[in-house]
Specification:
single chain; alpha/beta; TIM Barrel; seven-stranded parallel β-sheet; two-stranded antiparallel sheet; 10 helices; 46% helix; globular
Length: 212
């Protein structure tokens, strides 16, 4: 799925197909293996096909292995988050991840991911980082931390960088996801909202609105 362009350019446009037009993805941080699988199942049943598990501990990697295996059985996409080194890339690939996500912009991590056959989304929080990422050939970028940057940041970035595709991550919930989507995010990553029965109907509504 991963692609590389000419010379040193990288290409992560494959995320367009991976997300399939869905406005939501699930991010499950530090939940442990069994809980991660349960919440992933909730996400899949709701219609959120893409799940990200940050990997910072051995327990996180075990959770990724379990959820990635379950995802393959259901035809769902599971990736690794908080990938901050080439070692993390190798761990993610070994655990069965289909993609990597980083909190910041590290082109070595993106390149290592692509070399391992994984798509990769770097994190950005400034116009300079967006410009550098796009110069390298990357169009899908993680706006992080989105709740700190604010929805207006996304609107502002759309002017100079109309080709950028942002995944808003950090502090997202059913209450504010719609605001960030309207501001220009292509995808919003939600986590704890998936364990809140009160938020599930709102999340389902966002999915239905996008696909109707």
């Amino acid at each position: 799925m991963a692609q590389t362009g000419k010379g040193d350019l990288m290409d992560n446009s494959g995320f367009e197909e991976l997300f399939g037009g869905s406005p939501l993805m699930a991010i499950l941080r530090g939940m442990g293996a069994e809980r991660s699988l349960a919440v992933s199942t909730t996400a899949w049943d709701l219609g959120i096909d893409v799940v990200e598990l940050p990997i910072q501990t051995a327990e996180d990697l075990e959770a990724l292995r379990l959820v990635a295996a379950a995802g393959r059985e259901r035809g769902k996409i599971v990736g690794a988050g908080t990938v901050v080194s080439t070692e993390n890339v190798a761990q993610a690939a070994s655990a069965g991840a289909a993609f990597t996500v980083s909190p910041g912009l590290d082109l070595d991590v993106v390149r290592a991911s692509h070399d391992a056959g994984l798509l990769s989304i770097p994190g950005v929080g400034t116009a300079s980082e967006v410009q550098l990422a796009m110069k390298a050939g990357l169009t899908w970028l993680k706006a992080f931390p989105a709740s700190v940057l604010g929805a207006s940041w996304l609107t502002a970035m759309r002017g100079p960088f109309p080709q950028a595709r942002f995944v808003a991550t950090g502090g997202m919930s059913a209450a504010n996801a719609g605001e960030y989507l309207r501001a220009g995010a292509r995808v919003v990553a939600v986590g704890s909202a998936l364990e809140d029965p009160a938020q599930l109907p709102q999340l389902a509504g966002l999915l239905g609105a996008e696909r109707s």
